[in-house]
Amino acid sequence: MAEPEFEQAHKELVSTLENSTLFEKIPEYRKALEVVSIPERVIQFRVVWENDKGECQVNKGYRVQFNSALGPYKGGLRLHPSVNLSILKFLGFEQIFKNALTGLNMGGGKGGSDFDPKGKSDNEIRRFCVSFMRELSKHIGADTDVPAGDIGVGGREVGYLFGAYRAFRNRWEGVLTGKGASWGGSLIRPEATGYGLVYYVDHMINYATGGKESFAGKRVAISGSGNVAQFAALKLIELGATVVSLSDSKGALIATDDKGFTPEIVNEIAALKLQHKALTALENHNFRYVEGARPWKEVGKVDVALPSATQNEVSGEEAQALIDAGCRFIAEGSNMGSTQDAIDIFEAHRVSQKGNAIWYGPGKAANAGGVAVSGLEMAQNSQRLSWTSEEVDAKLKGIMKNIFENSLETAKTYVSPKEGEFPSLVAGANIAGFVKVAAAMKDQGDWWP
């Protein structure tokens, strides 16, 4: 059976490793690549639930437990009609190396269902979550597998899932992250992916400009309008940037004045999202809504692009459009936000234009802030402690700094950029994450030369 999303993610990692000196220096790691590419376990099950009319409904449920060499499986649950095994394998595969980059003890996994929460009542969502957890609870635990939220799974769904787990297993434990702050959740968790993305790009800007520039005065295009996009936008505005776009599944909302999005508008968007309403409601003299479009060709001159919606949301053509618009930095708030064509264009431009090039930060590094704070939530649960917002934010900043520096130094070691050329952050992130997991697997006897 074809698995295009997983095959794309796998090919991207393999091509990076092949085009580096890693296999020349450590040839036995080819065997590690072969082993790590197959999940340790794939769980599939049916989810039978009752709608408000009393009718029986059935959906497919999944959990891909991909790799546990570094710690319990860790990765989100996605509820969306598009969910299938290929998408979950791609997400779980990416999660292995993203989690490795955080430096925390977490393996990689992903799960979810083709259930669509849009248009469902709270009671229908609760009944689905209880049925879904009835089976999933047999396979997860604080030291085994710790799921989190993802697309379609927010605080409400995590609450229903946690309550069902507690009832089925008769135990309170940190089995899910993204919990409510009053019952085991971590402060800064909702903001973490968006904040972490901004912190990561801030390091890119600082390195590329020798500390002469920051986000102040930069025009930033963002796609998406969920948690990642919202909190990235709010942090960017705080740092003096102008946010010129957000988007939803039906189109892009583009700012038509120099003011861009304000915190008030972002909060209005958050309220709309909770009501499952489209961004068209905000179209007025300050904003235009472009039906069926993504922001990249619509925003005009832009300094930074942050794809933060879903996979493959920047095509090769759109990558070139961003370069033509003067974009100097692009980093993914979504997983595999750029197609392989787009990545090839960004990387070719990086090599040919050296210090004047666009610089690309891959999702497994740039959007790792979310899972990093999930890991911090796990640590707080284990200690029965709660840290302050300032403590969590400081730890998040430190983790994102380490991810950037690790990717940078690894790229210099295994890809050797030419004079004046930015190191390849995609190569650095892929190699650094892979090497850490491969070494742990070897130590534990999962593969041998």
Characteristic key phrases:
alpha/beta, 449 residues, Rossmann fold, NAD, NAD(P)-bd_dom_sf, NADP, Glu_DH, 7-stranded mixed sheet
Would you mind describing this structure in some detail?
The protein has 449 residues and is of the alpha/beta class. Among the domains are: 138 residues, Leucine Dehydrogenase, chain A, domain 1 (Rossmann fold), CATH 3.40.50.10860; 175 residues, 3-Layer(aba) Sandwich (Rossmann fold), CATH 3.40.50.720. Helix content is 45%, strand content 15%. It contains 15 helices and 12 strands. The strands form 2 sheets. It has a 7-stranded mixed sheet with strand order 9-8-7-6-10-11-12. A 5-stranded mixed sheet has the order 1-2-4-3-5, with helices on both faces. Helix 1 packs parallel to helix 4, helix 5 crosses helix 6 and helix 14 packs across helix 15. The mean pLDDT is 96.
Structural class, from helix and strand content?
Answer: alpha/beta
Q: Tell me the overall shape.
A: globular
Instruction: Output the strand order for the largest sheet.
Output: 9-8-7-6-10-11-12
Report the sheet-strand fraction.
Answer: 15-25%
Which residues form runs of ≥5 with pLDDT under 50? none
CATH superfamily of the domain at 192-366: NAD(P)-binding Rossmann-like Domain
Report the mean per-residue pLDDT as an integer: 96
Identify the CATH architecture of the domain at 192-366. Answer: 3-Layer(aba) Sandwich
N/C terminus separation: 31 Å
Q: Name the CATH class of the domain at 192-366.
A: Alpha Beta
CATH fold group of the domain at 192-366: Rossmann fold
Q: Percent range for helical residues?
A: 40-55%
Question: From the alpha-carbon coordinates, what is the Rg to the nearest angstrom?
Answer: 21 Å
| Biggest β-sheet description | 7 strands, mixed
Order of helices and strands: HHHEEEHEHEHHEHEEHEEHEHEHHHH
- The number of distinct helices, counting runs of at least 4 residues, comes to 15
Annotation, overall tally of beta strands = 12
